[in-house]
Amino acid sequence: MPKQIAVIGLGLIGGSMAMALQGFEDFEIVGVDNDPATLEFARTHSAAHRLTSDAGAAIAMADVVYLCLHPGAIVDFLSTHRQAFKPGALVTDVCGIKTAIVDAAAVLPPEVDFIGGHPMAGKETSGIFHADKALFQGAHYILTPRPGHRSEHLDLLRRIAAHIGCRDVVETTTQKHDAIIAYTSQVMHIMAVAVCDDPDLFECRGFEGGSFRDCTRVAALDVPLWTELFSMNASALTKVIRNLEDNLRSYREVLERGDTAALTQKLAWSADRKRHMDLE
Amino acid sequence: MPKQIAVIGLGLIGGSMAMALQGFEDFEIVGVDNDPATLEFARTHSAAHRLTSDAGAAIAMADVVYLCLHPGAIVDFLSTHRQAFKPGALVTDVCGIKTAIVDAAAVLPPEVDFIGGHPMAGKETSGIFHADKALFQGAHYILTPRPGHRSEHLDLLRRIAAHIGCRDVVETTTQKHDAIIAYTSQVMHIMAVAVCDDPDLFECRGFEGGSFRDCTRVAALDVPLWTELFSMNASALTKVIRNLEDNLRSYREVLERGDTAALTQKLAWSADRKRHMDLE
Questions:
Q1: Which residues of B touch A138 (CB under 8 A)?
Q2: C-alpha to C-alpha distances, B133 to B30, B68, B96, B158, nearest whole angstrom
Q3: Are the beta carbons of A247 and B273 separated by less than 8 Å?
Q4: B142 vs A189: CB contact, 8 Å cut-off?
Q5: Could you say which of A204, A223, A245 has the minimum Cβ distance to residue B245?
Q6: B195–A247: do the CB atoms touch at under 8 Å?
Q7: Pairs across A and B, CB distance < 8 A
Q8: For residue A279, is pLDDT > 60?
Q9: What is the C-alpha separation between B65 and B68, in angstroms, rounded?
Q10: Distances (CA, A) of A269 to A276, B199, B200
Q11: Could you read off the pLDDT of A15-72 as tens digits, one per residue?
């Protein structure tokens, strides 16, 4: 009997993951979802080798479980099903925040290993209907192993990352992940929606260039998902937003003073930081 | 003798424009620059039909003059050469701000027509070494004709816009251009540099996704150019920065209060604006 990977939740990320996992070593991929339309789409698009709505049965048989639900639902799932995982199994997730998830995994019995994961890929759309087996190509795959994790499971996740096309695997702590992700991802989304709150938004057709299209692309976000991601990382995120407000105000004040020399100096400093970042 | 278009200043935009203009009707393209290395590069890459460092001689013969200098240099050029243009000529520019430029064109004699222009294309690099004849493909070409302009010149610019591959031509006033461009372009650049001012910039390697790369792409900007563009449009730009600060603070305060319902409502409103913008 082949080893099994159960993917719980076939949304954009779970659906893409189930598709991308196919062909990984000799694993059978089992897709799990409650929604009949999602299961039907998954069936007609061969998103997994097998499909079911019975999560309990799937995880009882699975050697690896990928939790691809919204963060609050992952916390609930871990609590509800904590005794139902196969002993010796690896449980992992794909969620954009890590501290709340890994803390919730403390309910698991000691014979079940949990390693938090975050493949940094996404789209400004939701649901399996937009899933793409190439979604993870070129993405960083961040892992936050707990003390005492089993090293063969970390090796397994590294082989999966390579199979699905990730650029590299980055190991870090849950705290560092959440602090940095507030900066590199969450505040990008807050900026995009804040830009769309400008009263001139609908005046700008015909005047938008690449930078505007790039910045606002992620504003059409999945509201329930991002409400959870932002709320469950509010402490790190509000610190980054405050930094950004301060940095914007500093530019505004130099412009209001008409201090061209100071503006030149500030721009040179910032542009140099960006070039320095690109070089290394 | 063929009609001539003189391109004054063969930087990224001027060099790309000279390349893109070749083949436009029966015009001969004359490239003008002071810098020997730029002229040599232009010669070996056939950036124009003819090349010279003598701007005065070039504009005396040119039926169309494209001013592709930095904004302050355009103002100086118009003042210095105001009597040297060929009577009946069209003078235009490619500058990212329009009020200061069109105001400066008031020094021209009445037999020289000036129509301000802004093809909305660019790159985060400078100089003819990065020029690309396809740079304007798909871009909006904004024109700000003055009262009393000659309609055949507007027609000519429309045909040029089509020839160089622009998506459309948008006619507006200099005031509206500068107000909207502060929002759709200038503040995107201010955001990019402000993001790079965050103390965590160099911590973020390995944690950056598409939205971070997109947002910060334009931060490595041409400092002298953008110092002028920002300074010469400071009134409109500071208003937009203040709006953005307010909108960011509003998101931060909801997060600090832990008011999930208000966060959901705000995100739904903003995301809906973005989707509405895409639909029309």
A1: none
A2: 15, 15, 19, 18
A3: no
A4: no
A5: A245
A6: yes
A7: 278
A8: no
A9: 9
A10: 10, 13, 15
A11: 999 999 999 999 999 999 999 999 999 999 999 999 999 999 999 999 999 999 999 9
The set of residues, in sequence order, having a beta carbon less than 8 Å from that of A69 and lying 6+ positions away, is A8, A9, A11, A14, A77
pLDDT of residue B32: 98
Write down the ipTM of this complex. Answer: 0.91
**Which residue of chain B has the CA closest to A235?**
B256
The residue type found at A148 is G
**Closest by alpha carbon to A70, among A97, A48, A47, A32?**
A97
Among B223, B253, B257, the residue to mutate for chain A (most A Cβ within 10 A): B223
Helix (H) or strand (E) holding B168: strand B168-171
Across residues B151-174, what is the average pLDDT?
97
Tell if the CB–CB gap between A211 and B188 is shorter than 8 Å.
yes
Cβ–Cβ below 8 Å for A242 and B234 = no
Q: Are A20 and A68 in contact (CB under 8 A)?
A: no
DSSP code of residue B254? H
**Residue of chain B with shortest Cα separation from A240:** B198
C-alpha distances in angstroms, A17 versus A27, A164, B34?
A: 13, 8, 56
> Three-state secondary structure along chain A?
CCCEEEEECCCHHHHHHHHHHCCCCCCEEEEECCCHHHHHHHHHCCCCCEEECCHHHHHHHCCEEEECCCHHHHHHHHHHCCCCCCCCCEEEECCCCCHHHHHHHHHCCCCCEEEEEEECCCCCCCCHHHCCCCCCCCCEEEEEECCCCCHHHHHHHHHHHHHCCCCEEEECCHHHHHHHHHHHHHHHHHHHHHHHCCCCHHHCCCCCCHHHHHHHHHHCCCHHHHHHHHHCCHHHHHHHHHHHHHHHHHHHHHHHHCCHHHHHHHHHHHHHHHHHHHHC
Of A110, A89, A76, the closest CA to residue A30 belongs to: A89
- Chain B nearest-CA residue for A227: B264
CB nearest A202 (choices: B187, B204, B277): B277
C-beta of residue B238 within 8 angstroms of C-beta of residue B181: no
The tokens of B146 are what? 């003055």
Q: Is B148 left (phi over 0), alpha (psi -120 to 50) or beta?
A: left
Structure tokens at B3: 């009609």
Q: Which residue of A has its CA nearest to B170?
A: A206
Which residues, other chains included, contact B261 with Cβ-Cβ below 8 Å and sequence gap of 6+? none
Choose the closest CB to B256 out of A196, A238, A277: A238
Q: Which two tokens stand for residue B216?
A: 């910060």
Q: Of the candidates A200, A242, A248, which has its C-beta nearest B180's C-beta?
A: A200
Whose tokens are 């832990």? That residue is B258
Predicted model pTM:
0.90
Interchain proximity A263–B227, CB inside 8 Å = yes
Cβ atoms of A42 and A48 within 8 Å: the answer is yes
